[in-house]
Design a protein that fits this description.
3 helices, 9-stranded mixed β-sheet, 30% strand, two-stranded antiparallel sheet, alpha+beta, 170 residues
């Protein structure tokens, strides 16, 4: 009439056993290795060493072609500038590359020595007018797992811009 409840015996196989994963100590898995195999971006704690394009490959990896959607925002990235990581936005609609004076003041001591003075020019943005104070050339390394890219763009330094990082225009 009713089903009898039976106690499990030692011979019964635990149904959870088919989902168990055996850990092998001689093969440690690093999160970065898993991310690298999946073509995902990866990051490490080594944020200060970046003198060569191969150094950039070791601390930041962007997705492979066709996998940018997993990165979230494909136009925002971290690049190497003066041996440190800095944010960069790629804007194909911008007619020049820009950086804010405040950002340079906070991250690059003595940046004024590298400034090329130019005629003051007004730029317009959604937040209002911005005034240029000159241009600066910064070598940037864009890291990628298949080979990093080194560029020397000229950035217009804007006096009253609200930008935390660099904007690379075309």
């Amino acid at each position: 009439m009713g089903d009898a409840i039976r106690e499990p015996s030692d011979d019964d196989q635990d149904p959870r056993e088919e989902f168990l994963v055996e850990y092998q100590e001689e093969m440690p898995l690093e999160i970065q290795d898993i991310q690298l195999e999946a073509g995902m971006p990866q990051d490490t704690a080594n944020k200060n060493l970046c003198k060569h394009t191969q150094d950039a490959q070791t601390f930041l990896v962007t997705p492979t072609k066709g996998m940018a959607y997993i990165h979230g925002t494909a136009t925002k990235m971290t690049v190497c500038i003066d041996n440190a990581q800095h944010p960069l936005i790629i804007d194909s609609g911008a007619h020049c590359s820009i950086v804010a004076r405040d950002y340079l003041d906070n991250h690059f001591p003595n940046w004024e020595k590298q400034l090329f003075p130019t005629k003051a020019k007004n730029f317009k943005s959604a937040s209002g007018k911005m005034t240029s104070i000159g241009t600066i050339i910064k070598e940037i390394i864009i890291p990628h797992r298949k080979g990093s890219v080194r560029l020397n763009p000229e950035f217009v330094v804007l006096d009253n811009a609200h930008l935390q990082g660099f904007l690379l225009g075309t």
